[in-house]
Specification:
The structure is a single chain. The chain is an alpha+beta fold. The protein is about 20% helix and about 25% strand. It has 7 helices and 13 strands. The strands form 3 sheets. Strands 8-12-9-11-10-13 form a 6-stranded mixed β-barrel. A 4-stranded mixed beta sheet has the order 1-6-7-5. Strands 2-3-4 form a 3-stranded antiparallel beta sheet. The longest helix is centred in the N-terminal third of the chain and has 18 residues. The termini are far apart.
Length: about 300
């Protein structure tokens, strides 16, 4: 009877341990990782099997020898790689990120391997790009055994159980296909001209309403660049990245060489990214196409908002 009770208690503790494995991503100079607390009888090999990653990758990531014994309660960093971590398919255990102060959805994307903003919206059921400090967002899925798959709970991210802690990966490119609206960017799309409605795009009416509430008094001559996205080519939804402008603001972007104009929604800021140095704004490639701007690194536009 006593042995039975002990066995039941052990099972309950094991289940509780797995339930706590809702994962929060962290990062260092080597990339994104998760934290694992060593349990009795665990080794780098058994931990590697649990997270679907070779112990030969775990050991150098933690700067320890492969033959080193582990201590109960020791924290081991589990690297997230293409082998065990996906940001393109909703398969596995969700991995979360805690939104920091002054972070928008674009910054969350950049800090987490440039995961598509469209996927962030879909996985977290976001009706807009408005997010709050401390909010937990799913940023990918880890293929890990022995960890409860909580994918079903993604329908209501704000009520999801507490998880581990958050990341930041150093980005190597400025703005890429992952800054766009719902669809995944397709490089081939850029070869076809964007469909123009002749009125400046989908956000024109929102710009007019915005102007009625607060007259557009700012006009800036800005040095601009381009970022790639699938949005805008068929739906005329154009986007921009710009410092000092509240995300969600609609701006009018004019090509002074031909007076063509589009209306673009600001997704977030540009600061802190070395590749954006010398630029005041980036516009989506579909917007640039409608403005008849070629594939150039820098060009001049006028911006009203």
């Amino acid at each position: 009877m006593k042995k039975t009770i002990i066995l039941i208690l052990f099972c309950i503790c094991s289940i509780a341990g797995f339930a706590q494995n809702e994962l929060l991503v962290k990062s260092n100079a080597n990339g994104l990782y998760l934290e694992h607390t060593v349990a009795p009888k665990e080794s780098l090999y058994s931990i590697g099997r649990m997270y679907n990653i070779s112990p030969k990758e775990i050991a150098p990531f933690n700067k320890i020898d492969l033959s080193t014994g582990l201590e109960i309660g020791q924290t081991i960093l589990i690297p997230l790689t293409d082998a065990n971590f996906s940001q393109s398919t909703k398969k596995g255990t969700p991995v979360y990120y805690v939104v920091g102060e002054k972070e928008g959805l674009y910054r969350v994307s950049v800090n987490n391997g440039k995961v598509l903003m469209a996927d962030l919206r879909k996985w977290n059921n976001l009706g807009s790009d408005n997010i709050n400090p401390g909010q937990k967002l799913i940023v990918g899925f880890v293929n890990a055994t022995g960890i409860e798959n909580n994918t079903a709970s993604t329908a209501t991210p704000k009520t999801e159980p507490a998880v581990v802690e958050a990341p930041k990966r150093e980005e190597t490119k400025p703005v890429v296909t992952k800054t766009a609206e719902p669809q995944r960017a397709n490089v081939e799309t850029a070869k076809q001209p964007a469909i123009s409605d002749g009125k400046g795009g989908y956000f024109k009416s929102a710009y007019e309403q915005q102007s009625k509430a607060s007259a557009a008094v700012k006009e800036e001559t800005a040095t601009a660049g381009i970022f790639k996205t699938a949005s805008g080519w068929q739906d005329a939804k154009y986007y921009a990245l710009m410092d000092g402008v509240e995300p969600g603001t609609i701006v009018r972007v004019i090509n002074p060489s031909n007076s063509r104009a589009v209306y673009a929604k600001v997704l977030g800021a540009m600061s802190g990214i070395s590749q954006n140095k010398g630029l005041d704004v980036r516009i989506s490639n579909a917007a640039a196409n409608v403005l008849n701007i070629g594939d150039t690194e820098k060009f001049i536009v006028k911006v009203n908002y």
